[in-house]
Write a structure and sequence with these properties.
Layout lengths: L7 E3 L9 H5 L5 E4 L2 E4 L9 H5 L5 E3 L4 H7 L2 E6 L13 H10 L4 E2 L2 H18 L6 E2 L4 H10 L13 H17 L6 E7 L2 H8 L11 E4 H9 L2 H6 L9 H4 L16 E5 L1 H12 L9 E5 L15 H12 L38 H17 L13 H10 L14 H8 L14
Parallel strand pairs: 5-6, 5-8, 7-11, 8-9, 10-11
Antiparallel strand pairs: 1-4, 2-3
């Protein structure tokens, strides 16, 4: 039952079964069985929390290697995330970074922050035109989209149906490269320089469109050393390549996207636990009417907190403010478009609810399994300690019913085997014995 492509995966050889990831996962996608963790694919939203907190580096993230990508395409275009600028000390001109990108082996560069300003304009227009959908929820973070898709189905109609800046930038960059070089579209590689694993997963399983415009994704943390080695040379001959202002570059931090809606009726939250609380409150209608827009980032402080970055998230947030200070608020708007209108960046496909937490294939099986689950839950102590290998008593009961990872009620360390068998009306498990030789 693989609902999504995943960039985050387990490297079991390094796993010690320490329970850290079990307690950190916001969607209860991790179990510990036989001393090793495993990820329940359909629950995972690629937030990277397990990757960030695993003390044994047993969680990995799939992404591309720049050297291999460079050899794969005749012409390569870089899409630097706005977060990239905040990774450097004492940076006064982002054009130095963009020039260094060209020196490192790319043929062209297109700022995602420039596309972000176009998305901001489209968002502002869409919010004004669709008050019946208020509050509209940002779709810039793929993790949030997946979270809503599997856990908050009632909020799907509130998702902002506009492509994320990465996709808009990729679309425009490819068209510019084709016009500039005369090459075929498949000869041009569009490479996103990403701060997080969810963007990697997005290009393989995009939401709102049939196929991603991005060809490959490299991580900021992998590309950073190479880029840093070209910075000094780039300073000597800086090319004026930046086409975005404070608004677009500000998307790197929490609250940056919300500035583009030109309204004070918004809410911005970051950190996956805080995001879940906000979504629950929206679902429970705890906010007063009139809230227009909700910006949510799964990473603390915004995209600068992505696990594929190199700088401390909050220091990077400060650097973003400092870098943006001399910039004009806006440089890119729809007047820059020649072959498109803002309506071209609206979703071409709808998003559907994925009931990954259901207990059965139909309502009858689900009801029957619910009764079994409730009975099992009554037998458990309700401590939610995680020592059984499931994050909570409720998840253990669900695992038993759904036969997930060979879960058994005997896994609870607070129930002896005889009591567990009696509670479930089952024969007591036979003790294993070994014959001894005299």
């Amino acid at each position: 039952m693989n609902k999504f492509y995943h960039s985050v995966y387990l490297f079991s050889d390094r796993c010690s079964g320490c329970f850290t990831c079990l307690k950190r996962c916001p969607t209860q996608a991790i179990r510990i069985r036989d001393g090793k963790a495993f990820i329940i694919s359909q629950y995972c939203i690629d937030c990277g929390e397990c990757y960030k907190h695993c003390p044994h580096h047993a969680k990995r993230c799939r992404r591309d290697e720049f050297a291999k990508v460079r050899a794969e395409f005749p012409y390569l275009v870089a899409l630097p995330a706005p977060t990239l600028y905040s990774q450097f000390n004492h940076l006064e001109d982002v054009n130095i970074v963009l020039t260094a990108i060209l020196r490192s082996g790319f043929d062209d560069v297109f700022e995602v922050s420039a596309a972000a300003e176009l998305v901001s304009e489209a968002t502002h227009k869409y919010i004004l035109d669709h008050p019946e959908q208020w509050p509209l929820i940002s779709t810039a973070c793929p993790t949030i989209e997946r979270l809503i898709r599997v856990r908050f189905p009632n909020l799907i109609p509130h998702l902002l149906p506009i492509l994320p800046p990465m996709e808009v930038a990729a679309k425009l960059a490819r068209e510019r490269a084709v016009e500039k070089t005369g090459l075929r579209e498949d000869e041009i590689g569009i490479v996103f320089i990403s701060p997080c694993p969810s963007k990697v997963a997005f290009i393989f399983a995009p939401l709102g469109l049939a196929r991603s415009n991005v060809d490959r994704v490299i991580a900021i943390k992998d590309y950073y050393p190479l880029l840093l080695s070209h910075m000094k040379e780039a300073e000597k001959d800086v090319q004026q390549l930046s086409h975005s202002g404070r608004l677009g570059k500000g998307w790197a931090v929490s609250g940056g996207e919300a500035l583009g809606i030109k309204s004070n009726e918004y809410l911005a939250a970051d950190g996956i636990e805080n995001v879940i609380q906000v979504l629950e409150d929206i679902e429970d209608e705890k906010f007063e009417p009139g809230l227009q827009f909700v910006e949510l980032n799964s990473c603390s402080a915004g995209c600068v907190g992505g696990v594929l970055t190199v700088e401390n998230a909050y220091l990077a947030k400060t650097k973003t403010t400092r870098i943006n200070h001399p910039e004009p608020f806006l440089k890119t708007d729809s007047s820059c478009l020649t072959n498109h209108t803002l309506e071209d960046f609206v979703w071409s496909e709808s998003i559907k609810y994925e009931p990954v937490y259901s207990l059965g294939e139909d309502i009858f099986e689900s009801m029957e399994n619910m009764k079994r689950m409730e009975h099992i839950l009554e037998c458990l102590p309700g401590l939610d300690c995680g020592c059984c290998g499931s994050p909570t008593c409720k998840s253990l009961a669900s695992d038993i019913v759904k036969s997930t990872g060979k879960a058994r009620i005997e896994d609870c360390i607070f129930l002896d085997r005889k009591k567990a068998a009696d509670l479930l009306g089952q024969p007591e498990p036979e003790e294993q014995t070994t014959d001894s030789k005299e």
